Amino acid sequence: MLPVEIFGDTACVETRFLVLVCELKGTAYRLEPKQSDDQPLMQHQGHPHHSMLAAAAYLDARFPEVPLTPEVPAQIGLMWEWLARPVVESNAGVALLEAALNESPFLAGEQRSLADLCWCARMAEVIEQSPSLVDWQQRVLAEEPQDDVPFAESE
Asked: How far is 12 from 119, CA to CA, in rounded Å?
């Protein structure tokens, strides 16, 4: 099978996100520099994707062995809420994520999702500021999903 072609630079959030998705799924990919603005962000087997979210949804459906979309409808909706949420300033982003992760081990509930990978890519430069975000990132990027994930419950 041909590898996924990702066009961009890992300094770019969209590229980092798609690389994380491929790596977590164990999907072969090739990172290429983007040559023009009309070039897709990602392409696989003749299917070009210009949107980061469309590309990630395609990868999750195409390579289902490591699912990154929850099964519970309410958690699917929560995942999409996080994916659609605008990027916030770094300190506010840290506080936002810490508050959400006090409620559940991952952004969309009990299992990691595309939302977690997206926000890991978005907040890559500031995750180290927060021990709870470092723990979350380690859970998100773990090769095997963890069933009994400890998390801080709000009091």
From this structure: 13
151 — phi, psi (to 5°)?
A: -150, 155
Buried b (16+ CB within 10 A) or exposed e, 84-120: eeeeeeeeebbebbeebbeebbbbbbebbbbbbbbbb
DSSP letter at 106 equals B
Sheet with 47-49: strands ordered across: 29-32, 4-7, 42-44, 47-49
The pLDDT, as a whole number, for residue 144 is: 66
Query: What's the distance, CA 38 to chain centroid?
Result: 24
In contact, 115 and 83? CB cutoff 8 Å:
yes
C-alpha to C-alpha distance for 28 and 36, rounded to whole angstroms: 23
Backbone torsion region of residue 109, taken as left when φ is above 0, otherwise alpha when ψ lies between -120 and 50, otherwise beta? left
pLDDT tens, residue by residue, 102-146: 999 999 999 999 999 999 999 998 999 999 999 999 999 997 654
Residue 54: is it exposed, middle or buried by C-beta count within 10 angstroms (0-12/13-18/19+)? middle
29-32 and 4-7: which strand pairing? parallel
